[in-house]
Amino acid sequence: MNTRKKQIKLIIIAGVLIFGLILLRIVYYKKGEKIKEVEICSVVRKEIISTVSAAGKIASLNFYKIGTESNSRIIMPLSKLEKGGDIICTLADPEERRLIQSASQNLQLSALEFETAKRRLKEVERGYSRNLENASLSLNASMEQCKKTEKLYEAGAVPKQQLIESQNSFKKTKLQYEDAHEKKDIYSQHVQIKKAQIQLENNQQEMETILDNLKEKIIPRELVTDRVVDVKIDESDIKMINVGQSVKIKRNGFPQDISGHILKIGTKVIQDQGQTYIRAIASIENAPDIESKPGLQVEVEIEVGYLKNVLTIPLAAVLENDRGKAVYVVGKGKAMLRIVEVGLCGQEMVEIKNGLKVGNLVVTLGNLELKDGDSVKVKI
Questions:
Q1: What is the pLDDT of residue 253?
Q2: What is the per-residue DSSP string for 275-327?
Q3: One domain, residues 127 and 22
Q4: What is the torsional sign of CA 328, 330, 336, 338?
Q5: In the predicted model, what is the mean pLDDT of residues 276-285?
Q6: Are residues 136 and 114 part of one domain?
């Protein structure tokens, strides 16, 4: 009987010890696992607007009055009228708007390509001159060295092998000099310029044809304001800019933003104080009580994209890895890495085309330190 009681007592003690060990292990594991604090945001459906920012200056223009019928809008600067070149326009009819925007963009891009080709030719020509000068100097130096070695060889001061090496070096330098004389890169660039010029002339002709067809749809002069904004658009952004796009004109001290539209996009690339840009003209359409004198510096925000009712998350939530764009989705105290497909980007929000759904919680702060599967605590 006593033996049985002892056995039971030992079993109980052993059970308590095992339970204690398990408990200690659990506590140790929880202490070793670091729970990271993060901020999160829910995936929602909303509109998203993508914009480009540029510097601008209030200016005034003179316009030529053509036609007084129709409420469509085409505005032509007087200085360009005779040539039928650049135009300033916003059209009410969607099909006409599409037509004129497409022609304007084609003209702008072809002119940009033409200017780029000419600039590239100058760079190639400068490189050719430098290479030729260097090759000439090397040839002269090699020639002198070869003559010197020949004299030393005749005097018995150097072995024949050294003479052969000097002669081979001179032949090699001579070949390099002849290669430097080749103008194949310059010829190739002239071909590119010719192609770009032909494309530019074709697009100019297309624009002139459109102008001829739309002459009767130009608004009366009295409906056009003299005040516009001269905008400097960075060369890297210019492909996103089209005639007719909405703009907001801002400045500290304005009681409200001024609205307007892109009326004209220039074709000449301008380099000034380290900045490369193309000029555009924007209308001023709602500034009756705002001081907007010519010469006033302003900030211009151009709307280049708009989507309604799309999945959106903050830009801060999106990370880049070797598989593409990704976000951390929080659920059951864990942060799980998920690959996503992004679309239109706004200033703070980005469209999600694939990979998330409404209500998903994504990490917006603290995601840079996370790994897939990390335990997280939402910061309140």
A1: 77
A2: EEEEEEEEE--S-TTS---TT-EEEEEEEEEEEEEEEEEEGGG-EEETTEEEE
A3: no
A4: negative
A5: 83
A6: yes
3-state class of 234 per DSSP? strand
pLDDT digits (tens, 9 = 90+) for 290-302: 556 777 889 999 9
Structure tokens at 169: 């070096």
Q: Which domain, by its residues, includes 8? A: 1-31
DSSP state at residue 236: T
pLDDT higher than 60, residue 131:
yes
**pLDDT at residue number 186:** 74
Residue 180's H or E segment, with its range, is helix 160-181
Estimate to the nearest angstrom the gap between the alpha carbon of 178 and the chain centroid: 42
pLDDT at 159 over 80: yes
Distance CA 236, CA 299 (A): 18
Q: Give buried/exposed letters for 261-270 (b at 16+ CB in 10 A, else e).
A: bbbbbbbebe
- Look at residue 234 and tell me if it is in a domain: no
Q: What is the pLDDT of residue 95?
A: 62
Which tens digits make up the pLDDT trace of 187-203?
778 888 888 888 888 87
Nearest residue to 114 via CA among 194, 51, 171? 194
Which of residues 207, 225, 243 is at a domain's end? 225
Residue 233: inside a domain:
no
DSSP string, 44-66: EEEEEEEEEEEEEEEEE--EE--
Has this prediction a pTM greater than 0.85? no
Say what the pLDDT of residue 286 is.
Answer: 73
